[in-house]
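Lecture notes, part 5. Sequence design as translation. It can be helpful to think of inverse folding as translation between two languages: the language of shapes and the language of residues. The source text, in C-alpha coordinates, appears below.
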Protein backbone atom coordinates (compact mmCIF):
# COMPACT_ATOMS: atom_id res chain seq x y z
CA UNK A 1 0.00 0.00 0.00
CA UNK A 2 1.20 3.48 -0.87
CA UNK A 3 1.42 5.38 2.41
CA UNK A 4 0.95 8.67 0.55
CA UNK A 5 -2.61 7.72 -0.43
CA UNK A 6 -5.08 9.77 1.58
CA UNK A 7 -8.80 9.99 2.05
CA UNK A 8 -9.63 13.67 1.52
CA UNK A 9 -12.99 15.04 2.65
CA UNK A 10 -14.16 18.15 0.79
CA UNK A 11 -17.32 19.88 1.99
CA UNK A 12 -19.12 23.19 2.26
CA UNK A 13 -22.60 24.62 1.83
CA UNK A 14 -24.62 24.08 -1.30
CA UNK A 15 -23.82 26.80 -3.85
CA UNK A 16 -20.35 27.61 -2.48
CA UNK A 17 -18.66 26.44 -5.71
CA UNK A 18 -17.33 23.01 -4.77
CA UNK A 19 -17.96 21.57 -8.23
CA UNK A 20 -16.28 24.47 -10.02
CA UNK A 21 -13.22 24.30 -7.75
CA UNK A 22 -12.89 20.54 -8.20
CA UNK A 23 -13.23 20.70 -11.98
CA UNK A 24 -10.19 23.01 -12.14
CA UNK A 25 -8.33 21.06 -9.43
CA UNK A 26 -8.57 17.76 -11.29
CA UNK A 27 -7.34 19.39 -14.52
CA UNK A 28 -4.20 20.59 -12.73
CA UNK A 29 -3.12 17.62 -10.58
CA UNK A 30 -1.58 14.23 -11.23
CA UNK A 31 -3.50 10.99 -11.62
CA UNK A 32 -2.69 9.79 -8.07
CA UNK A 33 -6.05 11.09 -6.86
CA UNK A 34 -9.54 10.01 -7.86
CA UNK A 35 -12.94 11.53 -7.30
CA UNK A 36 -15.36 9.36 -5.36
CA UNK A 37 -18.72 9.41 -7.09
CA UNK A 38 -21.56 9.47 -4.59
CA UNK A 39 -24.91 7.76 -4.89
CA UNK A 40 -27.97 10.01 -4.64
CA UNK A 41 -31.72 9.82 -4.89
CA UNK A 42 -32.07 13.39 -6.21
CA UNK A 43 -32.88 14.03 -9.85
CA UNK A 44 -29.99 14.94 -12.17
CA UNK A 45 -29.45 18.63 -12.93
CA UNK A 46 -28.99 19.75 -16.54
CA UNK A 47 -25.73 18.36 -17.87
CA UNK A 48 -25.17 15.84 -15.06
CA UNK A 49 -24.33 12.32 -16.22
CA UNK A 50 -25.08 9.14 -14.29
CA UNK A 51 -21.81 7.48 -13.27
CA UNK A 52 -19.81 10.65 -13.83
CA UNK A 53 -21.32 13.22 -11.47
CA UNK A 54 -23.38 10.87 -9.29
CA UNK A 55 -24.89 7.43 -9.40
CA UNK A 56 -28.58 8.33 -9.53
CA UNK A 57 -30.64 5.63 -7.80
CA UNK A 58 -34.19 5.25 -6.53
CA UNK A 59 -35.04 5.73 -2.86
CA UNK A 60 -35.85 2.02 -2.57
CA UNK A 61 -32.50 1.02 -4.10
CA UNK A 62 -30.63 3.40 -1.78
CA UNK A 63 -32.42 2.06 1.31
CA UNK A 64 -31.53 -1.50 0.25
CA UNK A 65 -27.86 -0.44 0.05
CA UNK A 66 -28.11 1.02 3.57
CA UNK A 67 -29.36 -2.33 4.88
CA UNK A 68 -26.45 -4.07 3.11
CA UNK A 69 -23.95 -1.70 4.85
CA UNK A 70 -22.61 -0.52 1.48
CA UNK A 71 -21.81 3.05 2.53
CA UNK A 72 -18.87 4.65 4.28
CA UNK A 73 -21.35 7.42 5.04
CA UNK A 74 -24.80 8.44 4.00
CA UNK A 75 -27.17 11.22 4.86
CA UNK A 76 -30.48 12.71 3.96
CA UNK A 77 -30.18 16.29 2.75
CA UNK A 78 -32.96 18.48 1.31
CA UNK A 79 -35.27 15.43 1.13
CA UNK A 80 -32.77 13.28 -0.80
CA UNK A 81 -30.24 10.62 0.19
CA UNK A 82 -26.52 10.90 -0.58
CA UNK A 83 -23.91 8.22 0.18
CA UNK A 84 -20.31 7.12 -0.42
CA UNK A 85 -19.61 3.53 -1.46
CA UNK A 86 -16.99 2.28 1.00
CA UNK A 87 -15.76 -0.57 -1.23
CA UNK A 88 -14.76 1.94 -3.95
CA UNK A 89 -12.88 4.14 -1.45
CA UNK A 90 -11.00 1.25 0.18
CA UNK A 91 -10.03 -0.30 -3.16
CA UNK A 92 -8.58 2.95 -4.52
CA UNK A 93 -6.59 3.71 -1.35
CA UNK A 94 -5.24 0.15 -1.34
CA UNK A 95 -4.12 0.75 -4.96
CA UNK A 96 -2.15 3.77 -3.74
CA UNK A 97 -4.53 6.42 -5.02
CA UNK A 98 -5.84 9.22 -2.84
CA UNK A 99 -9.63 9.55 -2.87
CA UNK A 100 -11.43 12.88 -2.70
CA UNK A 101 -14.94 12.79 -1.28
CA UNK A 102 -17.11 15.79 -2.11
CA UNK A 103 -19.84 15.33 0.46
CA UNK A 104 -22.21 17.37 2.60
CA UNK A 105 -21.56 18.14 6.25
CA UNK A 106 -23.50 15.25 7.85
CA UNK A 107 -21.58 12.73 5.78
CA UNK A 108 -18.26 14.48 6.37
CA UNK A 109 -18.74 14.27 10.13
CA UNK A 110 -19.62 10.56 9.86
CA UNK A 111 -16.46 9.82 7.87
CA UNK A 112 -14.33 11.89 10.25
CA UNK A 113 -15.47 9.65 13.12
CA UNK A 114 -14.77 6.42 11.21
CA UNK A 115 -11.57 7.60 9.51
CA UNK A 116 -9.73 10.01 11.83
CA UNK A 117 -6.73 9.93 9.48
CA UNK A 118 -8.73 11.62 6.70
CA UNK A 119 -7.68 15.07 5.54
CA UNK A 120 -10.64 17.42 6.01
CA UNK A 121 -11.29 20.59 4.01
CA UNK A 122 -14.20 23.01 4.38
CA UNK A 123 -15.05 25.47 1.58
CA UNK A 124 -16.81 28.65 2.66
CA UNK A 125 -18.21 31.63 0.75
CA UNK A 126 -16.79 35.13 1.23
CA UNK A 127 -20.12 36.01 2.92
CA UNK A 128 -23.68 34.72 3.24
CA UNK A 129 -25.14 37.22 0.75
CA UNK A 130 -22.75 35.92 -1.93
CA UNK A 131 -23.77 32.34 -1.15
CA UNK A 132 -27.45 33.21 -1.64
CA UNK A 133 -26.62 34.97 -4.93
CA UNK A 134 -24.76 31.88 -6.19
CA UNK A 135 -27.56 29.51 -5.18
CA UNK A 136 -30.19 31.63 -6.90
CA UNK A 137 -27.95 32.08 -9.94
CA UNK A 138 -27.90 28.34 -10.63
CA UNK A 139 -31.61 28.43 -11.54
CA UNK A 140 -31.78 24.72 -10.70
CA UNK A 141 -34.10 24.71 -7.67
CA UNK A 142 -37.45 26.14 -6.70
CA UNK A 143 -37.78 28.79 -3.97
CA UNK A 144 -38.64 26.27 -1.25
CA UNK A 145 -35.49 24.23 -1.99
CA UNK A 146 -33.33 27.37 -2.06
CA UNK A 147 -34.66 28.43 1.35
CA UNK A 148 -33.96 24.95 2.77
CA UNK A 149 -30.42 25.05 1.41
CA UNK A 150 -29.83 28.53 2.89
CA UNK A 151 -31.07 27.39 6.31
CA UNK A 152 -28.80 24.34 6.12
CA UNK A 153 -25.87 26.58 5.11
CA UNK A 154 -26.23 28.66 8.29
CA UNK A 155 -25.69 25.51 10.37
CA UNK A 156 -22.95 24.16 8.10
CA UNK A 157 -20.90 27.36 8.34
CA UNK A 158 -20.80 27.07 12.15
CA UNK A 159 -18.99 23.71 11.75
CA UNK A 160 -16.06 24.97 9.65
CA UNK A 161 -13.76 24.92 12.70
CA UNK A 162 -14.03 21.11 12.90
CA UNK A 163 -11.97 20.72 9.72
CA UNK A 164 -8.19 20.68 9.25
CA UNK A 165 -8.37 23.33 6.54
CA UNK A 166 -10.81 26.08 5.55
CA UNK A 167 -10.68 27.62 2.09
CA UNK A 168 -12.63 30.78 1.27
CA UNK A 169 -13.97 30.70 -2.27
CA UNK A 170 -13.60 34.38 -3.01
CA UNK A 171 -12.17 33.61 -6.45
CA UNK A 172 -12.01 30.17 -8.01
CA UNK A 173 -8.33 30.51 -8.97
CA UNK A 174 -7.25 31.30 -5.41
CA UNK A 175 -9.41 28.49 -3.99
CA UNK A 176 -7.97 25.96 -6.46
CA UNK A 177 -4.40 27.09 -5.74
CA UNK A 178 -5.02 26.61 -2.01
CA UNK A 179 -6.56 23.17 -2.56
CA UNK A 180 -3.56 22.09 -4.66
CA UNK A 181 -1.17 23.36 -1.96
CA UNK A 182 -3.04 21.32 0.68
CA UNK A 183 -3.09 18.22 -1.54
CA UNK A 184 0.67 18.35 -2.16
CA UNK A 185 1.42 19.02 1.50
CA UNK A 186 -0.73 16.10 2.71
CA UNK A 187 0.40 13.54 0.11
CA UNK A 188 4.05 14.65 -0.04
CA UNK A 189 3.78 14.87 -3.84
Amino acid sequence: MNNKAKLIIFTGPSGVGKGTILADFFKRVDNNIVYSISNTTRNPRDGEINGMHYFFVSKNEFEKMIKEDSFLEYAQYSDNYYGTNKKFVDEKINEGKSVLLEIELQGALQVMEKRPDAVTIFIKPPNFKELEKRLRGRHSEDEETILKRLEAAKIELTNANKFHYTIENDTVDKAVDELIRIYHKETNL
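The translated text above is only one of many valid answers, since several sequences can fold into similar shapes. The two ends are 16 Å apart (CA to CA).
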